[in-house]
Amino acid sequence: MFRLDRRMFVLAATLLLAAGCGRSATVPEAIEVFDVKTGYDDGGHASGQNRLLPTIAFKVRNKAGRPIHSVQFNAVFRVIGDPEELGAQLVQGIGYSGLPAGQEVGPFTLRSMFGYSGEQARREMFQHASFQDVQVQLFAKQGGNQWVKLSELVVDRQLLLIAKAPAARK
């Protein structure tokens, strides 16, 4: 009887250890944001006016010792001093197949759907008296876990020429 209980204990401990080795890293321990660029992207032309959209582009690296799976990124844009959201964009960043330890992915480009519009040239819009700076908060979420703030930056007053974001890793 004693042998059977000891075998069951060893089996249970082995299964728990194996399950722990296979679990995904978490956002706080794994996600490192780098090569961050902020600015304003060309929002096109609407109603005879040029549009500028606040934008953030970034890459992420898995700094943990194991893969991380199923991560979404969310950028929330606000005019500085205004509690109302100017706009936000959510993207699936790392799919179910995961991002291996030490690997990187990106760039991801997230834009507000709302920004500034005016009749003047886009570069001149930054000098307009009613132009106000915008901040962006970057968050990440893994599966059903809570959102984790990765960064908070003031969007640079510059025009960006950024390629579209890549598809998520599956």
How would you summarize what this structure contains?
With 170 residues, the chain is α+β, with helices and mostly antiparallel strands.
Task: Give a structural overview.
By secondary structure, the chain is an alpha+beta fold. It has a single domain (24-160), classed as Immunoglobulin-like, CATH 2.60.40.10. It has helices spanning 2-22, 27-30, 122-125; strands at 31-46, 49-62, 71-79, 87-94, 104-111, 116-118, 134-142, 148-154, 159-160. Strands 1, 2, 5, 6 and 9 form a 5-stranded mixed beta sheet that branches. A 4-stranded antiparallel beta sheet has the order 4-3-7-8, with no helix packed on it. The longest helix is centred in the first third of the chain and has 21 residues, at 2-22. 26% of the residues are buried. Residues 13-21 and 165-170 have low confidence and may be disordered. This is Lipoprotein.
